[in-house]
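Hi U.,

Before I forget, here's the chain from the pilot set. I'm dumping it here mostly so it's searchable later in email.
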Amino acid sequence: MTAPQLPSDDYSFDVRAVRRAFDRACDSFAGSSQVHAEIRARLLERLEVVRLEPRVVLDLGAAHGAGAKALCARYRSARVIAVDVSHAMLQRAARQQGLLRRFARIAADAQHLPFAAASTDLCFSNLMLQWCADPDAVLRELRRVLRIGGLLVFTTLGPDTLKELRQAWSTDAHVHVHRFIDMHDLGDALLRAGFAEPVMETERLTVTYPNLAALERELSASGSGNLAIGRRRDLGGRGTRHTARVRYETLRRAEVLPVSLEVIYGHAWVGSGKRAAGDSASTPAEVHVPVASLRRRP
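Structure:
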């Protein structure tokens, strides 16, 4: 089984730009990441049906540390480690620490984790994998650090994410919205990395914004702007931006613009004896929700 060949301009990231974007978003991330928080909460809920008593838990792509805080509360005897490529985010994560429930913070690239082989029981990752330049390398590294019987649970974004924005900019030759990897390709990548019987599911959300500018502001403030290798390095001409706005406005319904998110949920065990229930891919669920109505979570 060979890895899919992905066009470098559509799928590849400027890794240094990713780190800089999340460093810059440190102060604005909490107020602009309601979608991130909602998906994290849904991923945490999925752990409620998993029988696992981990000694070491990694929160990969920890950002402000809300996930690490929740994992500390869930697994009270475990050592929880927040890992993120952004030093600034991890500094802010210190504010999530309680007096009795504390977690370690380590700045690292997910492709090169500073942990010994078979040293971890649970790897938890919310909306990080889509920012990694080589998902196969990341999954191999996660397989390396997980013990036999260990579990990887994660969310990432699928190909239909931001499809309206991609279409609005389609008349411009530059990449304005990078492409996300398909659920089935990620399942294949988990098998290549040595995980057992991965289970992949998708959930389709439609979030609404008052206008295109509001969407672009939130993407930038949360560190989730356009970081593709083939992106335009300047603001672009006024005519090009006007065309994109006009094209997006044709989708307006009930005074709001739709934004599609294809959320992929995945989990896989290491070794035998831990069979996950369910099909390898479930029928997608579809939910429509205004971004303002998403409940704010810590």
